[in-house]
Structure formats: C-alpha cells, structure tokens
Amino acid sequence: EEAHNLISVLEKRIDTLKKNENIKKLLEDIDKIKTDAEKPTTGSKPNPLPENKKKEVEGHEEKIKEIAKTIKFNIDSLFTDPLELEYYL
C-alpha cells in the first residue's frame, strides 16, 4: 500500500513536469536533436550522437532540472492521513 502511494505520487509529479510548457519545449528540442543526429547514412546503422550535440542535450537537461525545482506539486489530495502526508514530504 505504501509503495503504491509513493508510485502514485511520482507518476503525478512526472505528469505535472511533462505538462509544463518550458519543459515540454526542451524535451521536444532534445528529441529533435537526437533524431536529426542519429539519421542513418546510406546503408549504415544510425550514427552516434556527436559530441557537440551531446553537450547541447546535456544543457537542455540541466535547464529541465532547474525548471523542475521551481514547480510546486499539489499532492495533498493523495493522502487522507496528515501523518502519512508528512512522511512523503
């Protein structure tokens, strides 16, 4: 039961983060960078991500982490027991 509640909290947090406009744009940019960089050339396997593209992706991921730190989560409704709520906070 406790593990199930924790999983619910984490799933809601992930959904909240994915719905954030700034994060959504950065995730789309990361996907585009990876897709464009990994397009296979004639008959070969997909190319690995070049170093400059890796750094660009890492920069976007850092921005996502910084934005995520500022987002407030409304998780009060998940718990009926105030002690249980405090345990997860």
From TrEMBL:
<keyword id="KW-0477">Merozoite</keyword>
<feature type="region of interest" description="Disordered">
    <location>
        <begin position="34"/>
        <end position="58"/>
    </location>
</feature>
<protein>
    <submittedName>
        <fullName>Merozoite surface protein 1</fullName>
    </submittedName>
</protein>
